[in-house]
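Bench notes, afternoon.
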Amino acid sequence: MHRNNLLQLLQNHKPFNHEEQQFIDNTIQFVQENVDCFERTLLIGHVTGSAWIVDKSRKFTLLTHHRKLDKWFQTGGHCDGDSDVLNVALKEAREETGLTDIEVVSSDIFDIDIHEIPERKGIPAHLHYDVRFLLEADINEPLIVSSESTDLAWVAILEVEKLNNSESIMRMVLKSL
């Protein structure tokens, strides 16, 4: 029952390209087959919630430099049992940036991605079934770097590829344009 809301969101999401359609299909299958898909204790993988945060002009996005992975990404994290993935994305955005005034642009999914997290400290390599939402924040609100990252930066959307040009990130850039 707790998976039905996410399954409905996934079925309603319009893919940007063929690759994202594969991610949608694979995520639906994963969620249907794993009752504990929102738990990080599911060692093959789990659902995560992320936020693509843009400013009110939609010309900048807020990225975090991930401490463990040493790369620039959108904010996000583990559901830890919370099946409301939008709530997870909002919570992670607040915790990782210090922002308090964040608005949900849409409760529909913005992007879907599946990526492998490498083995670390005895936790085997596994997949993150990342469900991403579009959020908006004030570029002038002070930022607070969390312990999970080394830096935060508002980056011009047209310059994001200088920090991270992965297909995953660039798909969200193209959607933003």
